Amino acid sequence: MTTIASGTDTLTRDALTVLQPGFTGTTAPDWVLRRLGEGLASVGLFGRNIASAEQLAALTARLRAEREDVLVAIDEEGGDVTRLEVRTGSSFPGNLALGAVDDVGLTRRVAAELGRRLAVCGVNLNWAPSADVNSNPDNPVIGVRSFGAGTDLVARHTAAYVTGLQSAGVAACTKHFPGHGDTAVDSHHALPRIDVAASVLAERELVPFRAAVAAGSRAVMSAHILVPALDPDRPATLSRRILTDLLRGELGYDGLIVTDGMEMRAIADTYGIERGSVLALAAGADAICVGGGLADEETVRRLRDALVEAVRSGELPEERLADAAERVRALARWTAERADASRSVPPDGEVGLRAARRALRLTGAEGFTPLTEPPYVAALTPVANIAVGDETPWGVAAELGRLLPGTETGSFAGADAGQEVLAAAGRRRVVAVVRDEHRHPWMAAALDTLLAARPDTIVVEMGVPGAEPRGALHVATHGAARVCGRAAAEVVAGV
After folding, report:
1. What is the CA radius of gyration of the chain?
2. Sheet holding 361-363: strands in order across?
3. 3-state helix, strand, coil in the chain (%, to 5)
4. How far, in Å, CA of 106 to CA of 383, rounded?
5. What positions carry a catalytic annotation?
6. Alpha carbons 232 and 101: distance in angstroms, whole number
7. Nearest-CA neighbor of 209 among 196, 194, 219, 195?
8. In 3D, which of 71, 188, 197 has the Cα closest to residue 140?
């Protein structure tokens, strides 16, 4: 193991310690290994870094050869947001499906198995779960990532998820504080604003985070959202009122506060990542997440130098940076002490599929006869949000193809999607797969066209089921994970 370079001063080491950068490739670049020797304490992994469980384990082992207590973080929510299974789709349904089942014991078991798999691969910090109450059905970025629209439901499942994940020795990072559920803007693109009274926030948004704190969540991630009732001037990530006064003071939270990705435009376009990082630390954040879009050594150098200069100029108190760095090291110690915890979690490879099956909601099943001939699967495909990405396969076509060989499929979007599906399907039975029909007028219009011409069309809704169920059979999966597609396909094929 490389020891911390003696030529690196304390201030510079602390500035590196609070960064959580990403990198490209499936092996650790030399610059990452070198920075670990200089004080870098964390790295963030994304889908681009993962080819297989074996490769990921080798990657994390190489990182630990340089710094034994390194925090290896990942954005693995299960469901639609998966990095472990970015090329195949997740073996676990996401939060909305778990909320639909509403069995906290099941949620705990799913999170424990997910944590076990992360731990086996050497990952010890998961930027999950989402504790956002999806109170705005038009939310473009949370949706199925939330346990639901009910405050108490979200709170109890957030606590169960935190408990399950951390039972495997993987630190939970509950997000997006103080709550991203009532937004109509994606903070990857712009700065969302939540205009509700402080009393509403206390009774709705903050309740799941209180539950997460009570459950012992080792980390909390801030949101890039403006909440005027709490701070009219600064987004939560940069707000002392929200991070220090509210989260630390009122909620009594003493763990690690991590920012959402600083390169997201809600921060980068307004403050810039250097200035934003300084303001976030000053506000009470302890770790700067960057690397989803910026994943290079120059970004790390820029942020390190910006923090050092801010301390030297007096803008950022040195003790605040030192406190943040110590909180990072404290979490690293916690994970190191629990490195073997995953061995106490019994493997349960089928828990995700069982959960996905239980999450299905069927309308029209009474008169439905399962298919025996291969259908035409029409995926009415919206533009994916950045958190989900467009590289992970979704739908039911692959699973139906396994059950009904000869199944054909196509992807459609836009004003003419309905007619295009009819032309492509020919005489085959149509299975129309949608995601958030209620948010996409073109998608609803396409279903109008399909059902008018082919009333025997089967509809599978793999997003938030906000529209009225329709079709010869309507299947709501509450998510687009691979196991959700399999569960829906089993119903359609009568397996």
Report:
1. 23
2. 361-363, 473-476, 458-461, 430-434, 376-380, 408-412
3. 45, 10, 45
4. 31
5. 188, 260
6. 38
7. 219
8. 188
Characterise 148 by phi-psi region: left (phi > 0), alpha (psi -120 to 50), beta (else): left
Do 223 and 180 meet the contact criterion of CB atoms below 8 Å apart?
Answer: yes
Burial (0-12, 13-18, 19+ Cβ within 10 Å), 108: buried
Percent of the chain residues past pLDDT 90, beyond the cut: 87
State the burial class of residue 386 (Cβ atoms within 10 Å of its Cβ: 0-12, 13-18, 19+): middle
Which of 427, 402, 422 lies closest to 412 in space, CA to CA? 422
Side chain identity, residue 89: G
CB atoms within 10 A of CB 251: 18
Pairing of strands 42-45, 219-222: unpaired
How far is 458 from 481, CA to CA, in rounded Å? 19
Q: What CA–CA distance (Å, rounded) separates 288 from 276? A: 10
Distances (CA, A) of 464 to 23, 199, 477: 33, 27, 9
Four-residue CA torsion sign, 129, 274, 3, 31: positive
Q: Are 432 and 421 in contact (CB under 8 A)?
A: yes
d(CA 405, CA 212): 45
pLDDT digits (tens, 9 = 90+) for 1-54: 333 343 469 999 999 999 999 999 999 999 999 999 999 999 999 999 999 999
| DSSP per-residue letters across 298-313 | HHHHHHHHHHHHHHHH
Output the CA angle 44-47-52, nearest 5 degrees: 105
Contacts for 217 with CB less than 8 Å, ≥ 6 apart: 162, 166, 172, 173, 174, 255
What's 489's DSSP letter?
H
What are the residues whose beta carbons fall under 8 Å from the beta carbon of 366, sequence distance 6 or more? none
Tokens 């009415």 -> residue = 380
pTM attached to this predicted model: 0.94
CA–CA separation, 463 vs 456, rounded Å? 22
